[in-house]
Amino acid sequence: MLFRSLIDRLLGTNDSYEGDVIKSKADDLPLKFPELLDLVSSLLDTASAHDAVEGTAAIEKVFPALQLLQRVTPPENKREVICLSLAELTSSPHWHVREKAARAYARLHFESDPELIELEWLRCEMWSTRGENARHGQLLVLRCLIEQQPEVPSHLALILFKSIASIINRCRTSDTSDVVFAASTELWRALLSKTRNVVLLDKMPVPGFVQGSPAWTVELLTNCLTDSNARDERPPSLVVKSLATSFFHEDSTAVPWLPVFKSLASLDADACITMLEQGSNFFGHRGVEVHWNTEDYICAVAGLLDEVKVGDGNISHAAAKSLAAILSKHRQQLSPGLSDYLPLAVDVLPLNATPLERDSALILSAILLDIELSAASTSTKTIHSLCQWLLLVKDAAQDVQPFDTRFAAAAAVNEIQSSREMLESESSSSRLHIDLAVLIYDLTNDDDDEVRDLAATAATRFSNITFTENTSVPATVPLASGLTLLKHLVSRRNDDPYLFDISIDRLTSSFTSISSQLLAATSQDQALFAHEKQNLFIDPAREARVWSHLALRLGCQAIAPETRQQLHKWTLESVKALVSSPQALGRASFEADVFVPVLRVVYAADVLLGLRRKYRFKDVQAAELRDGLVKVMEIIRRESGHPMLFEQAEAVVCRDLLVGAGQVSRVVHNVERNLTR
Question: Can you list the positions of beta strands (E) in 564-615?
Fold first, then answer.
């Protein structure tokens, strides 16, 4: 522990394995402290001398030395002795010691010639004279050496592929431990990644291996699963999971994906999930080019999702996530007939799913809905699926939901891309279009910036904004994108009463009584603990102003008489309640819970007066509303209330009076002009 503290003091606390990340800030440390390397050699020799029985406590001494060797390069005169000690530690009975010793050994030989790999491989092939720990350690050393190389030479790759195939076959037919078997398959994968640019063609001695493709890996895993079924036992989990990571390669040949998926799902769920994750990374992050085997993989994952939709939840989640990642990337480049092999969106809706399944299913169902709608499929079943999906996304986007669920909701609405124009043009889907746009706007006001940024991208897409050098920055600002989306929504649904109903509902907080709001705000709170609001980002006062402006911009046909009369009644009652509660308009108006309801009443009066001036609604009692606002202003001034409330009420009254005075002036001017003729 003292030595570890000394290392941390000299080099800083960093236990990373990556050589390019952990460059030492004291490369001349061995020159400054030559006795340090003697201490390191002593610790390495002491650790290698202990066996598995008495080395449990003493072996801990080796970890600070191994950490130091991963970060500091010893001089040439000390390196050979240290490497011999590290080579002994690669056969330690402790897995972690073997792992760190192998990494340190590979780091010290990073700049060595490729012949070192051949030397290490000769040591690996001495199976009859070495134990399981030594075999595992040498495989780790060779894997680390290969990972350090930028590229393995072609002639050496041929030798190593042949030898690894021989060792793996030997592992399958002997009593070799699962750890050694898994290490050999990991070595195969590492070598495969370092030879992907080498044209091996027919020189590859492994059967079925052409141009670096994993056909032999497929055959190996299939044989492994077949042998396990014949022996009525589960295959080694480490081996199967390691093989699953080796399937995907730049030049992949045809793979029987679905049978392999089904076998893995029934025998080893973790390996199946690993393969799905690797497939998502391989097929879903290849740029705009579609790999020729991509569609086969998509069909296989879709078939697996149908097989396990009522089975293992983790596999279902991984399959949905993998399929969503690939379709999101390549949906525009896929063959038209592929949609026949995809599941319907209604079949993957997370109606009775776990939270983990629901998050991935929301995104996948959004992509499938977008594909169905973009194909001009406006059937009743598709519209019904869209309604169900929208209800689920609304629930997932609520403030009380955890971050992962809200982020999944934002990602889901961001996947509605190709069908946007259809939703805007179809009159039958007007409510769905409005609900979706309002939902995106709400997500731009989320408490988490990652959700807001993702929703801002969706809002920009729905607003038909083209990203250019001048507009790309403000278009992706969440608040600006949300406002732009609402303006675009008004231009497209200017005469829709449903949009007016939503705006008034948001403005008045669903016509909640102002008296009950003031009573709850001014009463003394007896709660033992404070309750933090779920969303601290949203500004209720700003929201009231936004929705009042939206209501004023709608056309005459959108102003439903029932909603207008209900708004008129609520506003008059609210103004009378404010006049009869002078204490709420005094110092208490500086509290947010009082300020926001009062401001909503002022903006509601502004909407009514503006609609009366614009569309000549005679049932709106403008004089009574103005008189009520004037009384509210007088109370605010007398009780030293919030000045902004006074200013907003004054602006509403003055605007209405000035417009009325202008109308009277025009009438008088017209009369005078007619009389002078």
Answer: none
Identify whether residues 438 and 350 lie together within a single domain: yes
In the three-class reduction of DSSP (H, G, I as helix; E, B as strand; rest coil), residue 300 is classed as helix
Do 561 and 425 lie in one domain? The reply is no
Query: Residue 316: how many CB atoms within 10 A of its CB?
Result: 25
Give the C-alpha separation, 249 to 210, whole Å. 12
Q: How far apart are CA 368 and CA 605, in angstroms?
A: 45
**Rounded average pLDDT over 312-332:** 82
CA separation for the pair 677, 658 (Å, rounded): 29
For residue 126 the two structure tokens come to 């001495």
Amino acid at 26: A
Q: Are 304 and 319 in contact (CB under 8 A)?
A: yes
Going by pLDDT thresholds of 50, 70 and 90, the confidence category of residue 466 is: low
Number of domains the chain is built from:
3
Residue 256 covered by a domain = no
d(Cα 674, Cα 668) in Å, to the nearest integer? 10
- Considering the domain architecture, whether residues 559 and 446 belong to the same structural domain is answered as no
3-state secondary structure 171-227: HHHCCCCHHHHHHHHHHHHHHHHHCCCCCCHHHCCCCCCCCCCCHHHHHHHHHHHHH
How is residue 529 annotated by DSSP? S
Cβ-defined contacts of 652-655 (< 8 Å, 24+): 652/602, 652/605, 652/606, 652/609, 653/626, 653/629, 655/606, 655/609
Task: Using only the alpha carbons of the chain, give its radius of gyration.
Answer: 35
> Are 469 and 512 within one domain?
no
- Residue 384 is encoded by which pair of tokens? 């019904």
Cβ atoms of residues 268 and 237 within 8 Å: yes
* 476 and 348 share one domain: yes
Claim to verify: residue 400 and residue 444 sit in the same structural domain = yes
Going by C-alpha positions, the residue among 663, 659, 652 that lies closest to residue 628 is: 652
Identify the burial level of 276 via C-beta atoms within 10 angstroms of its C-beta, where 0-12 means exposed, 13-18 middle and 19 or more buried. buried
Q: What is the pLDDT of residues 607-633, one digit of tens each?
A: 999 999 889 888 889 999 999 999 999
What CATH code is carried by the domain that includes residue 397?
Answer: 1.25.10
In this structure, which amino acid lies at residue 284?
A: G
Closest by CA to 437, choosing from 360, 362, 493, is 493
Taking the C-alpha atoms of residue 442 and residue 430, their distance in angstroms, rounded to an integer, is 18
pTM over 0.85: no
Q: Which domain holds residue 73?
A: 1-108
Rounded Cα distance between 149 and 139, Å, is: 16
The 10 Å CB-count burial string (b at 16+, else e) for 171-195 is beeeebeebbbbbbbbbbbbbbebb
**Mean pLDDT for the stretch of residues 524-539:** 71
Residue 270 neighbours by CB under 8 Å, 6+ apart: 237, 241
Helices (H) and strands (E) in the chain, counts: 33, 0
Amino acid identity, residue 11?
A: L
